[in-house]
Amino acid sequence: TGDNGPCEEYMALTDKWRKIGTRPYVTGIGYNCDKSLAEGWYRFKGDAGSQLADTRDPPAWEECGTSMVVWLQGNHPGISDGTVDRTFCVTGLNVECDTTLPGKVRACSHSNVKFFVYHLKQPSVGCQWAYCARDTDDIQPT
């Protein structure tokens, strides 16, 4: 848990369509799919939002620029937790969690800015699916 590598060596996801609330059929963005996303460490930044939705406020079907939204089952870790194993859920048409896949999450801090990085993988579902995020301020408290 002491390895700080993921906090320094990650790929940024900044696509506006990844922001939860950017529904594909309302905005004309269309349906996107992460089928070409390489396994690795990622950080959501800018127009994409700042963190995956989690158990506090899970997303619904088509709640960002795709059909099946991938979100974090459980809560985000604290800085002192290091890298933790977590389960990611893929929404179904009428269910919050239709498919699960393993992943990792780490809370990071750089220049007094706290952020999360995620080790993302390809779920075994067909398109259209994607990892989407909220801004920290959008997370509803439980």
Please state the average pLDDT score.
86
Structural class: mainly beta
Report the end-to-end length measured between terminal Cα atoms. 28 Å
- Strand arrangement, largest sheet? 1-2-7-6-5-4-8
Uncertain ranges: none
The general outline is globular
Helical fraction: under 10%
* Largest sheet data: 7 strands, mixed
Beta strand %: 25-35%
Which series of helices and strands comes N to C?
HEHEEEEEEEE
Using the CA coordinates, give the radius of gyration.
14 Å
Please, how many helices? 2
Total strand segments:
9
Would you kindly provide a written description of the structure presented here, covering whatever features stand out?
With 142 residues, the chain is mostly beta strands. The chain has 2 helices and 9 strands; from the N terminus they run αβαββββββββ. It has helices at 5-8, 24-27; strands at residues 11-13, 40-44, 51-52, 68-73, 83-90, 99-110, 113-120, 129-131, 133-134. The protein has a 7-stranded mixed beta sheet, with no helix packed on it. The protein starts with a helix and ends in an 8-residue tail after the last strand.
Features:
142 residues, mainly beta, two-stranded antiparallel ribbon, 6% helix, 35% strand
Task: Summarize the topology.
Blueprint: H1 5-8, E1 11-13, H2 24-27, E2 40-44, E3 51-52, E4 68-73, E5 83-90, E6 99-110, E7 113-120, E8 129-131, E9 133-134
Parallel strand pairs: 1-2, 4-8
Antiparallel strand pairs: 2-7, 3-9, 4-5, 5-6, 6-7
